[in-house]
Design a protein that fits this description.
By secondary structure, the protein is mainly α. It comes from Pseudomonas segetis.
């Protein structure tokens, strides 16, 4: 994980970058499902940040931790809205 450090060793989620395996673990979805959600703009799933200038398929990318966490929160809120 690429990290931005705060005091006392804490990480700043708004500047912490996570790779696909961490995204999979956080959201509980398979890698192909994550990429499918990214292609569906209405899903609101965050897009990755390019980690290099390469335009080649498979070039390294990462996601902003806070954006992934916010997407999870939005899914919880949508569930709660339907349940209410």
């Amino acid at each position: 994980m690429t990290t931005a450090r705060l005091s006392a060793g804490q990480l700043d989620p708004s500047t912490s970058l996570i790779r696909i395996n961490e995204v999979v673990a956080i959201v509980g979805l398979a890698r192909p499902t994550i990429y499918k959600l990214m292609s569906q703009r209405e899903s609101g799933f965050p897009l990755p940040v390019k980690l290099s200038d390469s335009t080649a398929r498979g070039a390294p990318v990462a996601w902003v931790l806070s954006e992934v966490q916010e997407w999870v929160r939005s899914r919880i809120a949508a569930r709660d809205k339907v349940a209410a």
